[in-house]
Amino acid sequence: MAEPDAGPSTRLRHSAAHWCFFKRTGLDPTTCFQRLRSLGVGGVEMAPPEHWDAAKRVGLERVNVGAPGMTSGLNDRRHHASLIPQIAKLIDTAAREDIGHIIVFSGSERGQDPAEALDACAEALIELARRAEEDGVDLLLEVLNRQDHPDYLADRSSFGIELVRRVGSPRLKLLLDAYPLARSGEDPVAVMTEHLDLIGHIHVADAPDRGLPSADRGIDFPTLVSRIHQAGYRGWWGHEFIPASDAIDELNRSVQRLESWA
Q1: Are 202 and 192 in contact (CB under 8 A)?
Q2: What is the percentage of the chain residues whose pLDDT exceeds 70?
Q3: Are 174 and 198 in contact (CB under 8 A)?
Q4: Residue 215 CB partners (closer than 8 Å, separation 6+)
Q5: How would you classify residue 136: left for phi > 0, otherwise alpha for psi between -120 and 50, otherwise beta?
Q6: What is the C-alpha to C-alpha distance for residues 121 and 73, in angstroms, rounded to an integer?
Q7: Per the count of CB atoms within 10 A, which of 89, 108, 172, 197 is most buried?
Q8: Cis ω on the peptide bond leading into residue 180 (within 30° of 0)?
Q9: How many angstroms separate the CA atoms of 214 and 76, rounded?
Q10: How confident is the model at residue 149 (pLDDT cuts 50, 70, 90)?
């Protein structure tokens, strides 16, 4: 079988979120993934298991999968008995399938004391990080915003930063997205550049509508991309915006814009 086309050379590592683009292309998985490769996209994120083989055949890395627990999460010890075995099993699957990252979540706050929530998350993630270290898989704690995810606990970078530092494992990092940081009133450029050592993955979408990254809207993407790349970040740049029109065309424009800003 012929080797898959490597696609054009890029300075950055580009990945695309499956949920944002796949259905909007109207293409079958193989054709869609081939089109992504032709744009310089090297990985697909959060693809369902039934699409893993198609991604592998065309040479796309399966970058990550999402763990359960976005709402009923690790911040509540009552969920640990259920969630920890599920996530441990997912770590084993990721290792076997050569998927590098598992996205984990704090859960919804539901009036919980912040200190208690942090303790509960840390207890669970210390246990899971040991498993991740054994299997060579990274856990990524995602910071979200409450406009899109009402009552989500880790809606501020400060919570994620403290949690990652408390767990203290090289296999637990932050997944930071410029869009929810901006929606929560934080400065994505300042947060990401200051805490780059704790970031394992980056998502990009503009604010306030999760649109195509631009140079002149809610987020200063030229400065963000330039500073982070020059500081030595060589992880994935995950395109997780919602296309307003042609999904492939907008993804291509997003890739080209990030390349020009690097």
Answers
A1: yes
A2: 98
A3: yes
A4: 221, 222, 257, 261
A5: left
A6: 8
A7: 172
A8: no
A9: 38
A10: very high
- Which pair of tokens denotes residue 150? 């009402």
Burial 200-221 (b: 16+ CB within 10 A, else e): bbbbbbbbeebbbbeeeebbbb
CA-based end-to-end distance of the chain: 35
CA–CA gap between residue 101 and residue 238 (Å, rounded): 13
For 177-228, write each residue's pLDDT tens digit. Answer: 999 999 999 999 999 999 999 999 999 999 999 999 999 999 999 999 999 9
How far from 132 is each of 92, 128, 232, CA to CA, in Å? 8, 6, 24
Confidence of residue 4 (pLDDT cuts 50, 70, 90): confident
Q: What pLDDT score was predicted for residue 3?
A: 61
DSSP helix/strand/coil, 213: coil
The conformation of residue 26, written as its DSSP 8-state character, comes to T
- Domains present along the chain, CATH in parentheses: 13-261 (3.20.20.150)
Model confidence at 1: pLDDT above 60? no
Q: Are 252 and 244 in contact (CB under 8 A)?
A: no
What is the mean pLDDT of the segment spanning 62-67?
Answer: 98
Pairing outcome for strands 101-104 and 138-142: parallel
At a CB cut-off of 8 Å and minimum separation 6, what does 206 contact?
178, 179, 212, 213, 214, 217, 218, 219, 221, 241
Contact 44, 63 (CB under 8 A): yes
Tokens linked to 37: 């490769």
The pLDDT of residue 2 is above 60: no
pLDDT digits (tens, 9 = 90+) for 16-31: 999 999 999 999 999 9
